[in-house]
Write the structure tokens for this entry.
Amino acid sequence: MSIVFEESTRTFYLEGSGMTYAFFVNKAGFLEHLYWGAPIPREPLFHIRVAGSGYATASRPGRDVIDDPYWSYQLCPPELCFFGLGDYREPTVQVVNPAGDRLCELLYTGHEILPAKPPIPGMPSLSGGETLVVHTADAVTGFAADLYYTVYEDCPALARRILYRNGGGEAISLRRAFSFALPLPGREYDTLCLPGAWGRERRAVRRPLGPGVLAVDSKRTSSSSSMNPFLGILSRGAGEETGEAWGFSLVYSSSFVLKAESTFDGITLITGGVQDFDFSWRLAPGEEFAAPEAVLVYSGEGLGGMSRGYHDAFRQHLIDPRRAWEPRPLVINNWEATYFNFDSDRLLAIADAAAGTGIDTFVLDDGWFGKRNDDTSGLGDWVVNGEKLKGGLGPLIDQIHQKGMKFGLWFEPEMVNEDSDLYRAHPDYAIAAPDRSPCYSRHQFILDLTRKEVRDCIVEAVNRILAAYPIDYVKWDYNRTVTESWSPALPTDRQGEFAHRYALGLYDLCQRIVKANPTVFFEGCAGGGARFDPAMLYYFPQIWTSDDTDGEERTHIQYGTSLVYPLSSMSCHVSVCPNHQTGRITPFATRGAVAALGAFGYELDSTRLTEEERKQIREQTALYRRDQQLILAGDLYRIDDPGRGNFFSEAVVAKDKSRALLVTYRRLNPCNGNPHRLRMRGLDPARRYRIEEMNLTLSGAVLMGVGLVPRYERTDFSALRLHFEAE
Ligand code: DGJ
């Protein structure tokens, strides 16, 4: 792995695991992209450049190494784009100068190669990796942009971000401040995105990229379930394990946008970062704006290679290293068992019935605090509800600990109900626009995290509970999105800063609560999986994937989520049937097998289980503990996409290829159906593997080339777990 600058050609070669990235500084000082793909030798790449045809609407003569009189920014594959000098593509940055013009021409002024990546103050980002910083500036205004590139030797990721600086003498306003620009050659690509809704998070959608601009975005001041901050670009024929894929993922939790522009100049331009709709940012002289990090992954092994690249990058460089590889708590959560209707006795009965089954952590969900008997009141009052928890939280935790289980507690720190002591004392802490009554959502408002005094109040209340009781686990929920993006703390002309300042406030909150309580295990959550993004993974090693725990629906949600996020980051629980979200009935074993492809647990009333279900829980937890190293550290190979047929199959293979777990699920049982020939993936073709459950030993070559035929139960919604051990 290395970053090299070749003086003679002014070319940067960034060589990371499985990829080369190259660009050069042209005669004018513009950063011109050359290549991003499979590793190549360090050779000059100028043969791909051609002279302009003369049609360009605005040329910048004499600015090209090939002395093309028609050279134009519009025709140039850029490392960053700016508007107003003949480039009509999606700009990376737009600035309003003191004179009111919106021009900038960011040209090379120097660079540094750093042995380790500096963190972004106040923002989550990947760690480690050799880093190139290229300095650019506008000679007229002094506006500057530093482009950061980090490569890794252990994953095919490229971390990119831009730091903008006002180097002039007067204040300027940023109207757009994206994190990267990346041109790919040609226009024949498919796009992949992860749209969704509550209960239907991250449903993968692939479609051809046509002319114009495709945007995936959120305007919700959160990354949202409506669209994940990820965009994939795929070569047209790319499949699960073949063809090329380029991934773009933002380490960001607020409103974002990612765009793919197919231009008639033969380039597909990808760009994105902080949502620029409803955005502005004032920069006083000398001030900086740090765009969030984007994690780019190149794969020459289709979607599977891209996903494994992200999983490695996030496990190795994003998720807290103390947690990333640690066996996860095996949780029982009381939410679907009781909703708000519980007292200490009821909770202890659930914990009692779970103790001894292999479940090792009891998580008390919503409703333990304030006057919280339904969702209309109590949020913001982080004081124990003594009517429900007789004797308080202490005795409950003690008794759970005495059963040999850990104790977890639910919070929704960013929220307040109108009917709460906090709101009565500080109504102005809730986000609302002047003179308008705010929108309600689940009867609650969001606290204005842009204000330090509001954050201080939350940190004090949550940390007081965490300091007072021996709490092992916290579930951090977030159940609505921002409607009125306004804060009294910001001047009128700076309200466009609200959404990004909310993200910075959230990160500050996480830093002061999550990082300040290192012994507590934190799980993220957002009304299901509505804030499942890399920035939250930086703080929370696992995130509740969806409120939809139906075995069938989960195959789609987990399939889509796995495109970017590691299995160990997805909280997946077995719940009861008929399923509370869909009314569907699926076998207990199937729910267990599907949930085992994640951070496993239960979301049910353990006092109402049949003996057979209790037996199955004991088996499922034992199996999960046996397989957990695969889930934590293995390579994921998706085999059957549940959106394309009757099956969902995923294999997790140990890095050394000594073991594998295959989960395969058949949705409907057709009468007299054809056998399902399933070809394994990811094994070593030269080794022989014993499949325990089939009492069969075959070579990896046969298992992957010829395949096997799983013997599903003769019923709908049937799943099998098969274990492969190399001899
Ligand atoms: C939404 C979460 O997704 C659920 O798991 C549960 O914690 C509820 N909120 C509680 O209000």
Observations:
- The longest helix spans residues 611-633.
